[in-house]
Write a structure and sequence with these properties.
By secondary structure, the chain is mainly beta. The protein has three helices and 22 strands.
Length: 343
């Protein structure tokens, strides 16, 4: 698999560490390339690769390396790093110089990476991060040095008896009824295989007459779902931007009335999602359907009242017009060619 771009922005560990699949890497002082590396490994073989570090500061920097286990926590794909735990899987196979590695101001350094895949390596996905920091790893395994870390995430697939499969655990909307667009969709994608998958999806929305009312793309950045995990992907169906300017109750009502017009929808809708994950051997395609209602009650209320007023005005106008015609005719009608006064 190839990824066009990737973001690895890692700040102070005390504040949190973030790796986002599908972005662009930016670092103010130290840049690492590549931020993401996807590898195919063969049991019993050694794989050679490298990481390039760029010092964009005006001073020399001295760096130390650290290899840690990588995973994801929760259904949002939040990265999880095990700095104090025992190295297992890929993190234990990676061989990298621990440092110190000194890079002059405005210069760069290529760091060799050797991955020794054991003969008995379990087939499927294995994940680890090679970090670089100005602080050497603590001698005590239960302590983590505070500081800026940048690194490369390795997503490795070990050849063998690999299972590539997934299901859609749930597909739906965040509410069963809406007064207008946007309608917010979510899909919980369950990777039941043993390699990571990058599913992309398309939601087709049809109205009560079976006509296509809109389409929505899901996970266009190709964020990954790790093996044995469920990841939640979200998407929205909308037509125009919504005005969310703070307003009082009266102004807010008319503001929402305008929003209803700009994002008008009405009736019962059926949405069908098709999630596709392309692997090296097949395209895994899964489908699910959900339904929801859109009832623009502000439009119905205001426009309904306007229509009723218009009808009443028309009836009143017609009656007044008839009275005016009769009055203009002098209050007389003709019967059998003779004039008769209307009483």
């Amino acid at each position: 698999m190839k990824l066009r771009s990737f973001l690895t922005s890692i700040g102070s560990i005390a504040l949190g560490l973030f790796i986002v699949f599908g972005g662009v890497h930016v670092a103010s002082a130290l840049t690492v390339a590549p931020p993401l590396s996807e590898l195919d490994l063969t049991p019993g073989q050694t794989t050679q690769t490298q990481i390039k570090l760029y010092n964009e500061t005006r001073n020399p920097v001295t760096l130390y390396s650290e290899v840690v286990n990588f995973g994801a926590s929760g259904e949002t794909g939040n990265p999880s790093y095990d700095f104090s735990g025992e190295k297992i899987g890929l993190s234990s196979w990676i061989d990298v110089a621990p440092g110190p590695i000194t890079i002059n101001a405005g210069d760069s350094a290529e760091i060799p990476i050797k991955i020794n895949t054991p003969e008995n390596a379990e087939p499927g996905g294995h994940y680890a991060v090679v970090f670089f920091s100005e602080n050497p790893p603590s001698a005590e395994s239960n302590q983590v040095a505070i500081g800026t870390k940048v690194g490369t995430l390795y997503l490795a697939d070990v050849a063998g008896d690999v299972t590539e499969d997934a299901t859609i655990a749930e597909f739906g909307t965040t509410a069963s009824r809406y007064s207008r667009l946007p309608v917010n969709f979510f899909v919980r994608y369950n990777n039941i295989g043993n390699i990571h998958l990058r599913p992309t999806g398309k939601i087709t929305i049809k109205n009560m007459f079976g006509k296509t009312a809109g389409t929505v793309q899901v996970n266009a950045t190709r964020a990954a779902t790790l093996p044995g995990q469920i990841r939640r992907y979200e998407a929205s169906w909308e037509k125009n931007a919504v005005d969310n300017t703070p307003a009082d109750a009266f102004s807010g009502f008319w503001q929402e009335y305008t929003n209803d017009w700009h994002n008008f929808a009405f009736g019962k809708y059926t949405a069908t999602i098709v999630m596709t994950a392309q692997t090296s051997t097949q395209a895994i395609q899964k489908t699910s359907t959900t339904q929801f209602w859109v009832i623009p009650w502000r439009l119905l209320l205001v426009d309904g009242l306007v229509i009723i007023i218009i009808i009443l005005l028309l009836v009143y106008g017609i009656r007044k017009y008839n009275d005016w015609i009769i009055h203009k005719a002098g209050g007389h009608t003709t019967t059998g060619g003779r004039s008769a006064k209307v009483k």
